[in-house]
Design a protein that fits this description.
The complex is a heterotrimer of chains A (about 100), B (about 1000) and C (about 180).
Chain A (H helix, E strand, L loop, with lengths): L2 E4 L4 E4 L4 E5 L13 H8 L8 E7 L7 E7 L4 E7 L13
Antiparallel strand pairs in A: 1-2, 3-4, 4-5, 5-6
Chain B lengths: L17 E6 L2 E6 L4 H7 L4 E4 L6 E3 L11 E5 L5 E6 L9 E5 L13 H4 L8 H5 L4 H15 L14 E13 L3 H12 L4 E4 L15 E3 L2 E2 H13 L4 E4 L2 E7 L3 E7 L14 E13 L3 E3 L12 E3 H9 L8 E6 L3 H11 L3 E7 L7 H8 L4 E3 L1 E7 L6 E6 L6 E4 L2 E5 L2 E3 L2 H5 L4 E4 L4 E4 L6 E3 L9 H15 L12 E3 L23 E3 L4 E2 H9 L5 H8 L12 H12 L3 H4 L13 H5 L16 H6 L3 E5 L2 E6 L7 H14 L2 E4 L4 E6 L3 H8 L12 E7 L5 E11 L2 E6 L4 H15 L6 E4 L4 E7 L3 H5 L3 E2 L12 E7 L2 E7 L7 E7 L3 H14 L3 E2 L2 H10 L34 H4 L2 H4 L4 E8 L11 E3 L10 E11 L4 E9 L8 E6 L2 E8 L14
Parallel strand pairs in B: 1-7, 8-9, 8-15, 9-12, 15-28, 17-24, 18-19, 18-24, 19-20, 34-45
Antiparallel strand pairs in B: 1-2, 3-4, 5-6, 5-7, 10-11, 10-29, 13-14, 14-15, 16-25, 21-22, 22-23, 26-27, 30-31, 32-33, 34-40, 35-38, 35-39, 36-37, 37-38, 40-44, 41-42, 42-43, 43-44, 46-49, 46-51, 47-48, 48-49, 50-51
Chain C lengths: L14 E4 L2 E5 L4 E6 L2 H11 L10 E4 L2 E7 L2 E6 L5 H6 L6 E4 L4 E7 L3 H5 L17 E6 L2 E9 L2 E7 L3 H13 L2
Antiparallel strand pairs in C: 1-2, 2-8, 3-6, 3-7, 4-5, 5-6, 8-11, 9-10, 10-11
The chains are: A mainly beta (about 100), B alpha+beta (about 1000), C alpha+beta (about 180).
Amino acid sequence: MLLIHCPYCGEDRPELEFRHAGEAHIARPENMADMSDEDFERFFFIRSNPKGIVYERWRHIHGCARFFNAARDTVSDRFLTTYKAGEPKPDLGGEGA
Amino acid sequence: MPQTFRIASVGRLDNADPVRFTFDGKSFEGLHGDTLASALLANGVHLVGRSFKYHRPRGMVSAGAEEPNALVGVHRDAARRAPNVRATVQEIHEGLDAVSQNRWPSLSFDVGALNDLASPFFSAGFYYKTFMWPKAAWERVYEPFIRRAAGLGEAPDRPDPDCYANRFAHCDVLVIGGGAAGLSAALAAADAGARVILADEQAETGGALRYETGAMIDGIPGWDWAQAVTAELVARDNVQLLTRTTGFGYYAQNMVGLVERLTDHLVSPATDQPRERLWQVRAKRVVLATGAIERHMVFPDNDRPGIMLASAARSYLNHFGVAVGRNVAVYTAEDSAWQAAIDLKRAGVSIAAIVDCRPDPQGPHVEEARRLGIECLTGHAVTGTAGRLRISSIKVRPASGGAERSIACDALITSSGWTPAVHLFSQSRGKLVFDAETQCFLPGNSVQDLTSVGACAGTVDLSETVAEALKAGHEAAGGAARKLPKLSADSTERWSGGMLGAGEGAGAESTAKAFVDFQNDVTAKDIRQAVREGMRSIEHVKRFTTTGMATDQGKTSNMHGLAIAAEMLGKPIPEVGLTTFRAPYTPVTFGALVGHGKGRLFEPVRRTPMHDWAEAHGAVFEDVGQWKRAWFFPQAGEDMHAAVARECRTVRQSAGIFDATTLGKIEVVGPDAARFMELMYTNPWQKLGIGRCRYGVMLREDGFIYDDGVVGRLAEDRFHVTTTTGGAPRVLNHMEDYLQTEFPDLKVYLTSTSEQWAVIAVQGPKSRDIIAPLVEGIDLSDEAMPHMSVREGMICGVPTRLFRMSFTGERGFEINVPADYGRAVWEAVWAEGEKHGACAYGTETMHVLRAEKGFIIVGQETDGTVTPHDAGLSWAIGRKKTDFVGMRGLARPDLVAPGRKQLVGLRTRDPKTVLEEGAQIVADSQAPIPVPMLGHVTSSYWSENCGHSIALALVAGGHERMGETLYVPMPDGVIAVEVTSTVFFDEKGERTNG
Amino acid sequence: MADAIARASALEGRFLNDEGITLVRAEPATRLSLRAPKTAVKSLSKALGLDLPQRPKTSTAKDGRAALWLGPDEWLVIDENEADLVGACASVSAFHSAVDVSHRNTAILVSGPRAEAVLNAGCPQDLSLDAFPVGACSRTVFGKTEIILWRTEKDAFRVECWRSFSDYVFMLLKAAARDR
């Protein structure tokens, strides 16, 4: 069981309190009505799923209930950092892809 | 029967504390503190089982958790029959009933032993090669045969009556292993003020000090020191000391799984006392002090009962006071086995000979052995053994070749050296490094916060072990500011020497059975054959031969197997590779993993406030997610069909009362509530009047229906949203997701009120008459409170949110009252209802009545691929809206293409035929296979009110097929159906005001 | 109409008193799920007569009324005297959401020297006094359900859960209490 740092609670909490919520930094376009089929496909269906560092959303659903973002390495299963929803992708230095 | 191999003058057990137990039905006596293994040995019993493949007689190899051979069944009662229990771990208690396994008809005469004679046919890879063809024979011939012949113990055939416990724990320092190293580390960490958990798999701490009589710590014998330190640690508030507790798994971020065995050693544990406790420990730092495991020598016929590890013989002698034989031979490649011989000799046991394959071992133990007059055959090898059910002699010859000589013995103790127990370190994802000098894999860099100390880290000297363990414990506790504690330690024990792989007589040309892996019956020859047949990686060799794949996971055998493969491949050991260590270290019961989560605690069972009333009134319940919902209320003599038919009639003729509490409810509050609702639902909400309701449809972004429900507007800035029963949590999550991450600027908050309100639906022409006498402050007239409206007021003296709405097509109300009042209000409504001939109805009637009206149920008519257009709900989409979740998705080419499956009604040609839900629908029942399938039946019932069966179905191009005849092929014939409107009853919808 | 009906809470009559552990159903209370941005905290605190806690995992309590921090804009307000909490907030004009959840939750009082261990049978958080001091509160999990845990004293916790889960929570607490 992982420990996940909730940026709203300010501490590491057991994974059981969290729920994964898909890839992060995919903003819902404001002009939904005008999107081409291709753009909608990219927005809704296509995910990067890389080996290595992923930016993903989590929800502290059984805690403070906030959605937040995390950078996690899918190889080591380590969280590099977590940050509040709406904050920009963090600079991970050499580690970030 | 006397314990003839017990030596009263040695060992630590109390000779005045006998315990009686049975093995294979025969009664024995042991002493309190014995394991089953030590107690059997005290009675001269070595033969305890038959091997897995060849059914060869086998005895105890070890005195601990690494035991490959001595697996027995322990039967507490008819339901408690634990298979594959290691006799070396199971403590005896009065009345313990153990049986041998894998033998028929008896342990001493076993038919399966023919496999041994036929062994040329059972060589490595035999199963893979032989049972491949013909394919059909696998199921009927091969598998049943193999299953009968193979297998270890028998699984119990009754539910496990025991209970198990779970504990999450946190600590600063977790120490695994309670030997000299572990105790020293725990002591130092505890001294530094840390929260410490120490786990040891044995009944008592002490580890190797149990038999290392030459160890002195802090000026006293090692064992005595261990017990004193243990007592001291137990007394401390900041230390949790767990015995009979195995650290079985090392997971991410220093989460370590421990299993504590609580009752297996007790005579008659209380029935409510957990048998085992799973500890899920999160440690800031872990100190691994897991010691080392001795390896046996690999030589021909090295598996007879009576052949065991030298350290095991020392444990049995020095701790349990049991001699493993009267005339014991020793075969070794390292020093510590010499000490075993010396200990035995001093205790009065005759030593037949010490055979050491090294040409010239040196040291005080060699001198002492010679001084004691033991025959020391250095530079010799054991090349064979004799004896049917117990070893009777060994064959010995000089390693350089020469004449073979037979030496009589009744036990042979062997040692080829020690393998550090790096299992947990490896599980922690730490890299292992091969140390060429000691021929060991040792912990390299850690990737988690852990330290390995003592023998598991390759440290053999006791004083070094204690020093490094103290340091590790001290540092793990963050004790840098304090002085590092010191302990004197001194030992005459020697752990040097050792060899890997096959010994003399089991070389490349030998066809003898020199066992590497006892439990899976893998010999040195098998491993060589695997290499000859093309296996190059140890992973391949392992799978081809099954070496190391038994329940002991090759604790004693893996290094031998690896060395033999490496030798055959002509490569150094590290290049052949080490198989990955995986949890669990030793087998863990399912019970421990399940913990409290069985029986009534398997899953929460949710009941509404009216549940007991329904139960008292004969309701049959159905599971809807975790909820128990009243399904129907049969009266005397009624079956389900009759009850549902009556309920359906009664609702439409007078009224019915229904518990709708389980519906999800969400309160949407804030000045932007209507804007938010516009985004979440397809419908328009801005103009919905206060006090009015609307049926809302929620989509996912891809345009498919996600949920639905009636929404009431209580105020300009407050909506009372209902969701499906099963959808409640995910709908709230979906809404929170959009609110928090896509529309964070909207001033609106969401609160689940699902359980705040008990909901009593009163449906039918008499519904208003029933509730009118109970309601205060609400005008129930059609003018003041039309269909699809909501009012706040009082009912039975408590506050209510009263909805005028209908899921039946009848005039209807849904009374929301705070949950604790639900039962009382229900009873008041029921009392009024009875005056009007109303009935209580359940979910089945609810389903039928809504289907008569063509109302969908999300998850029944929809399956995540149905759009509002498909479901005939286009009217619910706000035409003028510029955005809502799913709007763009609805315009996707596939979702607007012709030929989509659309919701229609079906009427069977024979009105009495009720279709099966899920049945496929075709256009031409005579079409050749594969018949193109048009869709399927989503709902189907007998409609008492219509007098014929009704069904809803998703059919390709269904809206264009009104009046067409389609077919539903079933195993016993084809059913003709007519495509109809989805509304079967009161098409004009007049009854909501009726 | 008839007199007001008495509350019939879940877990009526359920209790356990074993060595080192007591489980009791809490008396009925009024409860508010309070959601508000920072801008409304001051006026809501004033209206409730209780400072809404601003730090994660903390609570404030006074005269039988308590406010538990659940999230950065979320509190559970409990009044053991069954005061009208919705009414108390009605005067606050700043944007907020006050929803009555008095009946949504049921509470179990877990007390005794073994309370911490019993809760740790199903709660994965570190409940030592250092990590979870008196006054600490958190939404978390207990076995297979969600709870709100509030430490009211060194050896006393209040476990709030949704009404229909209270049977499960009580049974799991009881099973854990058996594990001595």
